[in-house]
Specification:
Number of helices: 14
Bound molecules: pyridoxal-5'-phosphate
Strand order of the largest sheet: 1-9-8-5-4-2-3
Structural class: alpha/beta
CATH architecture of the largest domain: 3-Layer(aba) Sandwich
Number of domains: 2
Number of strands: 14
CATH class of the largest domain: Alpha Beta
Order of helices and strands: HHEHEHEHEHEEEEEHHHEEEHEHHHEH
Oligomer: single chain
């Protein structure tokens, strides 16, 4: 997902247009801006590409998740179901609005297990938040059925899976709300930025106001706008949006490169007995930003992972021991280390995660290696990498 690999002249030109106009803010200053509305243009491009009615671009993916939850009316004491394998932004955004993150096991899709989700639903559950980790999706059809049955909101965190699809719909557009990140390491980047997409007009209007201090954006005079409800500042700047406008035009080109590079490595590894791959739910097409595979045991997986890095195959991750992406290393959450006092709802309702049983997640994540698929590799480099990976895995498996 390396947005940091490919950017060029169009990005520079767009940024210069903003600098030349002198208007770095996304709202107002209509007379000065010479027709440059970069955040708005990025929203329009997202609506077209993602086939949704609405998009709200904000300052980060974490902000997009927070704004999405707030726009759906989620607040203190509401429970949000999220996976044990994700980026820390998932529980940060939930806690930020006073809601309670309910961690639930992942399965061989490496994202939310629908059967584990059903078991976790209570009277207080309001949202199911699958996270399409490492470029591929949760079983959205099953999760949608659960949401329909229990009248819950389906919020897709598609921050790592932009460009993938499920049953022909772009990831992020299948649920009630979908979020993207355009931080520096995602498939496309703004430097920093994020977006939510939805077909729900109320959610969109809420998101538009909430992300800008509650301003209703009626008319173009910030002095006379009204403020129907409280908000915060999650705005993106025009400079960041300008980069995103150029990047989104190249999304399909990037996806094509990722898929081509992925296939070379996949074809090499699939010949090996003992190597299996994450399950892609039926109807899904991943975005090929990572290749994730399983080995027969945790011990063998650790050996393969260290051999890969010792022998110079970079960008392969063993999430089980990684301190950002798996619940085992989230001590700040499990021990609730916060700078100030937490809302009572969170303190009372948060499960004691230091005692939780997530052995079903451990079973999969303990045997998973994910390799980042880069865009800048030459054909020769991908082939050599694939061959080298195949040899290393084979040697460890047969030692
Ligand atoms: C990157 C990421 C986020 C947060 O995005 P930022 O723009 O870095 O705030 C949220 N969820 C997932 C799965 C991510 O990978």
């Amino acid at each position: 997902m390396p947005g940091f690999e490919l950017f060029g002249e169009q990005e520079k030109q767009n940024v210069n247009e903003v600098l030349d106009s002198g208007v770095l803010m996304r709202y107002g200053f209509d007379g000065m801006r010479n027709g440059h509305w970069k955040a708005k243009a990025l929203e329009q491009a997202l609506c077209e590409r993602m086939q949704t009615k609405y998009a709200q671009v904000v300052s980060s993916g974490t902000a997009a998740l927070t704004v999405a939850l707030a726009s759906a009316g989620v607040g203190a004491g509401d429970e949000v179901i999220m996976p044990t394998f994700t980026f820390v932004a998932s529980f940060e955004s939930i806690l930020a609005i006073g809601a309670v993150p309910i961690l639930v096991d992942v399965d061989d899709t490496l994202t939310l297990s629908p059967s584990a989700v059903e078991k976790a639903i209570t009277q207080k559950t309001k949202v199911i938040m699958p996270v399409h980790m490492c470029g591929s999706m949760a079983d959205l059809k099953s999760l949608k059925a659960i949401c329909d049955k229990h009248k819950l909101i389906l919020l897709e965190d598609a921050c790592q899976a932009i460009g993938g699809s499920f049953e022909g719909k772009p990831l992020g557009s299948y649920g009630d709300l979908g979020c993207f990140s355009f931080d520096y390491v995602k498939t496309i980047t703004c430097g920093e930025g994020g977006a939510l997409i939805t077909n729900n007009e109320d959610f969109y209007i809420h998101a538009d106001h909430y992300s800008d201090h509650g301003h209703d954006h009626v008319g173009n005079n910030r002095g006379t706008e009204s403020h129907p409800f409280l908000g915060y500042n999650y705005r993106i700047s025009e400079l960041n949006a300008a980069v995103g406008c150029a990047q989104i035009q190249r999304l399909d080109e990037f996806l094509g490169i990722q898929e081509r590079n992925f296939e070379v490595i996949y074809n090499a590894l699939k010949t090996l007995d003992g190597v299996t791959f994450r399950r892609i739910p039926q109807g899904g097409k991943q975005n090929y930003s990572f290749l994730s595979f399983f080995l027969p045991t945790e011990e063998l997986t650790k050996k393969v992972h260290s051999s890969l890095s010792e022998r110079g195959v970079d960008a392969c991750f063993y999430w089980f021991d990684n301190n950002w992406h798996y619940y085992r290393k989230w001590e700040h959450l499990t021990h609730m280390h916060s700078l100030g006092k937490l809302p009572e709802e969170i303190k009372e309702q948060l499960p004691d995660y230091s005692k939780s049983d997530f052995s079903a997640s451990d079973y999969w994540i303990g045997r998973t290696i994910s390799c980042l698929i880069k865009l800048s590799w030459t054909e020769k480099e991908v082939k050599e990498r694939a061959e080298k990976m195949k040899n290393i895995v084979s040697e460890v498996l047969h030692a």
